[in-house]
């Protein structure tokens, strides 16, 4: 499972981050100055992924190194057998 996570990280680092239509993000959703990992949860098809992509582009535009960003989709088929212990 460790190798699968390594591959998922490499895949993310090598792919282009999609550029969504820019929308205003409410300040309570993504607080400024947060220096910790961020998890965004919500209903299916409510714009979570696109909100994160938009925020990633903003961080890149501000000079954040791409290697400091990571998006993992836990619905990836390679993670079907993952357990909490694997995390």
Structure characteristics:
87 residues, mainly alpha, 31% helix
Can you summarize this structure?
The protein is mainly α and 87 residues long. It has one domain.
Describe this structure in words.
The protein is mostly helical and 87 residues long. It has one domain. It is built from two helices and no strands. It is globular.
Topology (elements, then pairings):
Blueprint: H1 2-14, H2 48-61
* Share of residues in helices: 25-40%
Q: What value does the average pLDDT take?
A: 88
Please tally the β strands and state the result. 0
Q: What is the rounded Rg?
A: 14 Å
By secondary-structure content and strand pairing, the structural class works out as mainly alpha
Q: Which sequence of SSEs, written as H and E, runs from N to C? A: HH
Question: What share of residues are in beta strands?
Answer: under 5%
How would you sum up the major sheet?
none
Write down the overall geometry. globular
Structural domain count: 1
Distance between the termini: 9 Å
Low-confidence stretches: none
| Tally of contiguous helical segments | 2
């Amino acid at each position: 499972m460790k190798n699968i996570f390594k591959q998922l990280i490499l895949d993310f680092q090598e792919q282009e981050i999609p550029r969504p239509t820019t929308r205003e993000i409410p300040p309570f959703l993504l607080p400024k100055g947060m220096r910790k990992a961020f998890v965004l949860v919500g209903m299916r098809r409510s714009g979570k992924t696109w909100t994160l992509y938009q925020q990633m582009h903003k961080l890149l535009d501000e000079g954040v190194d791409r290697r400091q960003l990571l998006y993992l989709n836990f619905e990836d088929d390679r993670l079907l057998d993952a357990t909490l212990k694997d995390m």
